[in-house]
Amino acid sequence: MLTPSCPLCTVPALLYAAGTADGGSFVDSPYTIAGGCDGCMPPMYRCGRCGHGFAPSAGPDTFAWYAAAPPDGEYLAEERGRRVAARRVLRRLAKHIRPPGRLLDLGAGAGFFVEEAAAAGWFSEGLEAARWAVERSRSRGGPPVWLGDARDLRALECGTFDVVTAFDVIEHLEDPLVFLRGCAAALRPGGVLVLTTPRFDSLAARICGARWHALLPAHLHYFSRRSLRAALEQAGFHILAERSHRRYFSAAYIAFRLCATPVRGAWMRRIVLPVNIGDEFELYAARIGADGTV
Ligand SMILES: [Zn+2]
How far apart are CA 165 and CA 231, in angstroms? Predict the structure, then answer.
């Protein structure tokens, strides 16, 4: 079998983890599209030059799959923690750019972030591929969340957004460079992109190897510090700040992941705890203008 090449460096990559036929420990995940085989974990490769990890997709229409995906109950149950994380990102964003202004959240889900952004003074809107998530957002009557995917970025008013955000989105996409260039086109020169994505060269990822929790059948790309910086620079961004993202989960979710068994008790959903083991990027980057300035 031919070894695939790194999508960023184009040098041949090395096999990092052999695939499994049953999805490994994530057999119950409905999000099993990488590799084009439902229910399996595809083989993964790692670039020896930039440290980028990737799982070649065997070609189902990724966006069509997400459009018809079933509701994600765990995502909805963790609303409280997601809103706490959103408010923390908005406070950090204000160090680089302040509202009012136009903010676009890509992969907006059920609209938790666009609602928090509106409360912070942004004219916010979202773009989301999953129909069920858009319907949830609209049912609350908050800021608009449009039904669409990364291909629809071009249909938006290019160059008019002050901020574009994409939380845990880029790792799901076939071509991260095309996505980042779309983000750059949506922003005005000097506008700020905020990204989060799992960190493949983190200590946690290296210790856990093929059993790292972020190796999921739905993820197609795993960025190292070097590969993420290279991709952003190729797409026309200047990096303003790089942090380790602090996530917030309910005690129920943390107990579930620790014990691998559902934990009962509504009170455990109400307690939200910070989690930061240094394996998730939180990156702020400015779009470089035609004259090379930000
Ligand atoms: Zn590479």
Answer: 16
**Which pLDDT belongs to residue 26?**
42
Q: Residue 282 to residues 85, 194, 255, 259: CA-CA distances in angstroms? A: 11, 7, 25, 28
CA 293–ligand 1 middle distance (angstroms)? 27
Distance 276 CA to ligand 1 centre (A): 26
Instruction: Tell me which H or E stretch contains 255.
Output: helix 251-259
Helix (H) or strand (E) holding 106: strand 102-106
CA–centroid distance, residue 176 to ligand 1 (Å): 13
pTM summary value? 0.91
Angle among Cα 197, 201, 206 to the nearest 5 degrees reads 115
User: Exposed, middle or buried by CB within 10 Å (0-12, 13-18, 19+), for 41?
Assistant: buried
The three-class DSSP label of residue 236 is coil
Cis peptide before 274 (omega within 30 of 0): no
* 3-class DSSP state of 187: strand
CA of 90 to the centre of ligand 1 (A): 32
The identity of residue 121, as a single letter, is G
Q: In what order do the strands lie in the sheet with 53-54?
A: 14-17, 44-46, 53-54, 221-222
| Residue 227 CA, ligand 1 centroid: distance in Å | 7
Question: pLDDT, tens digit, for every residue of 81-105?
Answer: 999 999 999 999 999 999 999 999 9
Cα 105 to ligand 1 centroid, rounded to whole Å: 28
**Structural domains of the chain, with CATH:** 14-287 (3.40.50.150)
* Reported confidence tier of residue 74, pLDDT bands at 50, 70, 90: confident
CB 112 within 8 A of CB 86: yes
101 Cα–ligand 1 center, Å:
36
